[in-house]
Every structure is written in structure tokens, then in C-alpha cells.
Amino acid sequence: MDEMLKVRRHGEAGPELALLHGWGWDSRLMASLADCLAQRFRVVQPDLPGYGLNIDRPCDSFEDCVELLDRTLPDVEIIAGWSLGALLAIAWAARRRPRMLVLIGASPRFMAAEDWPHGMRPERFDAFAADVAEDARRTRTRFAALAALGDADARAVRCRMADLIDDVPPAPAALAQGLQWLHDGDERGVLQTLPVPRLWLHGERDAVIAIAAAQAAAGWGDGQCVEVEGAAHLPWLGGGDVRLLDALLHALHGQEGSGADEEGAL
Which are the contacts of 218, defined by CB distance < 8 A and separation ≥ 6? Predict the structure, then answer.
């Protein structure tokens, strides 16, 4: 694992912001959000191992992926992640201690548990994982429909995901590995003790990860939850990108001693 991950870059000035994609699609799915944030940040989008620019890059484990991200972007100041990418972002933030952690359509634990009613039930997850193993493309199409479910502009969400579904599809091993990370991942303990401000962006109609998960986790430590009306699992579409940019700038300006309120700091 000596080689770094290949990345996409947006913006030429401001703090460096890493933006991590989720399961099933590479970083291009978040290009509009990256372009919006690039107005004030240097946005770097690493494709995860087995995706997009790194389609031929293997990864041994969740921990190895976090280490690879950290070595690829040692100067990152803000870490943002969507869905599966948010689990990686939390673990990465525990190592890197950025100025801000941004969690989009996210939960610190994807699976339901006795003490976490906001996750997916095991039987539903197991059926989805079995479908991925049998026909990954068909199951990704179903996931796109679920991600768009309830969105005020569901057709636009489905179309955006459909545009990319056959353009460098993820490696089958990466899809299976990502599902295993979602199944096993539990970053609640890390998040509860992490001394890093958190900003959550969540669609109020998200059918993949209930907004209750973000609302509950935002209450731990220095957290804020920005709810996007009419949005589902891709809350940066339909105006959520601008809301995130505004909330992020406001939060950074409010950090005492960070220097973010000095002219030109952002």
C-alpha cells in the first residue's frame, strides 16, 4: 500500500476539504457539491479503493483504507463524508483531528441494535447483500430508487445516479467489502469522545438512513444538524449544497482561536 490514492480536485484557494463518496458510486456522484464547496475551499475527492480512478486498487480492511486516506491527504483541514464515506470520515477524523467533520446522509452505525433503533434491520440488509452478489447492477439500480424515494425531485436523483451506473462501475470486491464495513461498522464510541466540531447534513425524507440517526448523534458533543426539506439520501441536490456551504462557513467562522474569522482565512 505504498502508492497514494488518485484524487479529483476542485477549487484553488481556501482550506483543504476532503469529500468522501459512499457505497456503489464513485466521487463523480458528488461533483455538484464539490463544485459548490470549491467556491471557498480546495476540495479533494479521493475515489475509494475499487472505485473510479482507483478501480484497480485493492484494500485489505476498513483500517487500511483510513490509513491510506490519511497518507494520501496529510494536510486536510476539513473531512466530509457521505453515507459509507461518513463512517470512514469519522475514523479518519479520530486520527487526523481536523478543524471540522462534515457528515452527509450519515449515521455512526448503519445497522440497527437494541441500543440503536435508527439502523437497518439485519434481515433487510442480508437480503440486499445477497442481491448484490447475484446481480450487482440490478441491485445498484434498486438502491438508486431507494436513495431517491421521497425526494421532492426524485426523478432528477435517479437520473443523476443512472448517468453514472455503467461508467466505470465499482469492482465487485469493493461492493462486497463496502457492505461488510456497513454491517460491522460502529463509530458511536469514537464520535462521542471526538474533540472535533461536527456538522450533519441530512435529508428529512431519507429512506436509507433515517434522519433520527443524525439528530441523535448531533447531540453528542459539538454537533449541529442541518435538515434539508424535501430531500432524501442525496441532500446536496435541490439546494442542500448551498445550505451546507453556508453552514460550514458559519461554523468555521465561529471557531474561537482558529483564525477563520480573519480576512482571507477562508
Answer: 198, 200, 224, 225
Q: Would you state the cell numbers that stand for residue 87, as one nine-digit string?
A: 463512517
Neighbours of 186 (CB within 10 A): 16
Task: For residue 164, give the CATH number of its domain.
Answer: 3.40.50.1820
For residue 206, indicate whether it is catalytic. Answer: yes
Task: Express each pLDDT in 139-162 by its tens digit.
Answer: 999 999 999 999 999 999 999 999
Catalytic-labelled residue, pool 83, 107, 118, 241: 83
233 has catalytic annotation: yes
List, run by run, the mean pLDDT of 10-residue segments along the chain (266 residues).
84 96 98 94 97 96 97 96 98 96 97 96 97 97 96 94 97 98 97 94 95 95 90 88 86 58 38
Tell me which of 10, 21, 118, 233 is the catalytic residue: 233
Q: Around Cβ 161, how many Cβ atoms within 10 Å?
A: 20
Q: Torsion-angle region of residue 83: left (phi > 0), alpha (psi -120 to 50) or beta?
A: left
Determine whether 167 is an active site residue. no
Number of domains within the chain:
1
Amino acid at position 139, single letter: T
Q: Is the pTM of this model over 0.90?
A: yes
Q: Which of 26, 47, 206, 241 is catalytic?
A: 206
Residue 1 lies in a domain: no
